[in-house]
């Protein structure tokens, strides 16, 4: 009897899409205004999904307060009000697209979620664009 | 050619998270302010998903009016403006977490959905917390 | 040059609509299922609006972090996960309708907002019902 | 390492649910007010989901600008501000239910999405009713 | 002590923007694809605002159930699943723009709201376009 | 018979809250993590409100297509995917708080709205924080 519990979180950050091994013209051609060297930013809305058996003792798959605090400690503190390209080590060499951010967030959270549970993340970059990653 | 049709519904209820075989201290330790003996409550937003073949005659997987009425009769009438712990028999012995509520709602709806269709439910306890259950 | 700044907050509570000086039949006739003696509850969404001149030094009408903390300390701590009828002194003798809650929240916040600013509150009882009060 | 990228789009259209080989009485019995011969309409909200590997060069599964333009060119231009029954050839012989619209949109987009990616569409007919189709 | 209570309602309708005393070319020039002779449609989201004193006996400005039923009886029944141009008498001679619809809805509701209360309506034609009218 | 028409628009930008005539310590004390020298960013949601008489010929207060294009040309092109502090002249000497942004947007739009109409702007910096300015 598997249930998925989901928790919303939120952070704001600046970024640019950019490869240092490409010319400015190439960056501009592929990434358009998203490659603005002065950066732009987003309100990222994150939804973390944890799937597993309901613990018959508590009625929880996972305590939402714990999940909320785990996201806060490991994701929000690392990304909120940050410049992703400059201040987040993972993006020194990886382009901070929503896709790569979802993978990075999943990798960050995975060790903190019980191994018997599966994990998936949904990341809204804008209200009209979002990505999902389940570690597969 | 399988399509999933989804229908939103809504109900308000009071509840507390609580095990009668635990001390108040233990309930408070595990469930925090959610175990307030005087109850608190939520606007629950329910989404019911039915998956199946499109009926070539009507173009429907399932008539949405019928689905709406089925949810109203079997779920909303049973839970809306109720105290889950006191007035809903299923929760006399089961903790009314969102996880257990999703299972209870799925079990309630399953006999009223054609057996050739699969069923899934999503239940928002708050705009930031929700659960999903598909009967597996 | 007056600007209004608005901040969302959130709390969950149980309540019933009820007058102790009315019979059960009269309470039921006027308040319907909202007068259920076992209570029901809501996710209340609160928006607090503060209007005033922009401080030329900071560019703020009021520091949003301060406004957020003021709402948390004086409103959320008093109402979140509470039974309004039983646990909130103001509602011992006042019916906890959304209208009366908005007035109570406004009265609670007013002393904590600079007197040169005007204050208004919007309170959603459900996603489809809300009230507004500006102290007039 | 598969990621799903999703993009919202929007169009408004008129339609009626109706089979020309049925009597008016039968249409009315099955489709109710949705079979009004003078039509009614909706703001359709479409979400297109594309799943595939992240291109290590760009960090994209698929360029969102390209996906946005593909939806605009092939779906929005064909359906926006149209009468589905009269002006969209596919619905000359197919009832424009949300289910059939999702299949039609999927079939329309499939040739324009790289074959190595899988495609799914979600179509909201109203904020409370939606359907999903993944081509299976 | 004036409070405003607001209630959401919803209806779907078809319409076209069109003046019969203009040529097709003129209609198309001014109203663009909104003048499509085969109609298009919307999910209209209506919010009705009633402002007045709180009744000290009930704690209500106006009973929300009564307001909900008033909107249903006088607005939703008249407009839901209708073709505004063909089936709603008011729009035989008036162009069914959102502006004119708001005025028509306000005029329709005004006699059914206590005269001591003021009335305002907000009408969303799409999630990105809306109008407001207060009878002044 | 005055009606207000409102139109949503959207842009993403990077910024920091900062005064060059203050020390870093003072900036950090007042603006906290919003003064991060590497910038952070937001998805700004803008709603522009225009109030006036309904033109009896068209049924419009103002053509929404024209309003949409005016916002796009004068606001979105100037601010979307920009670094507000570095790339928007107005914010060279003015702190880009939401309050100051609302004033700047109002001042920018005012000359492009008919003088017989009044103008107001609402700017969401995050889904939980927003400001409003009406030029008074």
Task: Sum this structure up briefly.
The first copy, chain A, contains four helices and five strands, in the order E-H-E-H-E-H-H-E-E.
Task: Provide a descriptive summary of the structure in words.
The structure is a homohexamer of 136-residue chains. With 136 residues, the first copy, chain A, is α+β, with helices and mostly antiparallel strands. Chain A is 29% helix and 32% strand. In chain A, a hairpin with a 2-residue loop joins strand 4 (118-126) and strand 5. In chain A, 51% of the residues are buried. The mean pLDDT of chain A is 97. Chains in contact: A-B, A-D, A-F, B-C, B-D, C-E, C-F, D-E, E-F.
**CATH architecture assignment name of chain A:** 2-Layer Sandwich
* Total count of strands of chain A: 5
CATH fold-level topology of chain A: Tetrahydropterin Synthase, Chain A
Question: Oligomeric form of this entry?
Answer: homohexamer
Flag low-confidence runs of chain A. Answer: none
What fraction of residues of chain A sit in β-strands?
A: 25-35%
Q: Biggest sheet of chain A, in brief?
A: 5 strands, mixed
Instruction: Please provide the ordered H/E string of secondary-structure elements of chain A.
Output: EHEHEHHEE
What's the arrangement of strands in the largest beta sheet of chain A? 3-1-2-4-5
CATH level-1 class of chain A: Alpha Beta
Counting structural domains of chain A, the number is 1
Number of helices of chain A: 4
Structural class based on helices, strands and sheet pairing of chain A:
alpha+beta
What is the name of the CATH superfamily of chain A? 6-pyruvoyl tetrahydropterin synthase/QueD
Helix content of chain A: 25-40%
The pLDDT mean of chain A sits at 97
Biggest interface, residues from each chain:
A-F, 23 and 23 residues
């Amino acid at each position: 009897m598997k249930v998925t519990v989901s928790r919303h979180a939120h952070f704001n950050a600046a970024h640019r899409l950019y490869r240092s091994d490409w010319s400015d013209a190439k960056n501009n051609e592929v990434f358009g205004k998203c490659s603005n060297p002065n950066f732009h930013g987003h309100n990222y809305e994150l939804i973390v999904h944890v799937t597993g058996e309901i613990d018959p003792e508590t009625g929880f798959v996972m305590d939402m307060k714990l999940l909320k605090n785990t996201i806060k400690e490991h994701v929000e503190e690392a990304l909120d009000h940050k410049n992703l390209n400059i201040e987040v080590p993972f993006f020194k060499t990886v382009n901070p697209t929503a896709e790569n951010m979802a993978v990075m967030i999943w990798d960050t959270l995975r060790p903190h979620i019980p191994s018997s549970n599966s994990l998936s993340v949904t990341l809204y970059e804008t209200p009209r664009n979002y990505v999902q990653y389940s570690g597969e």
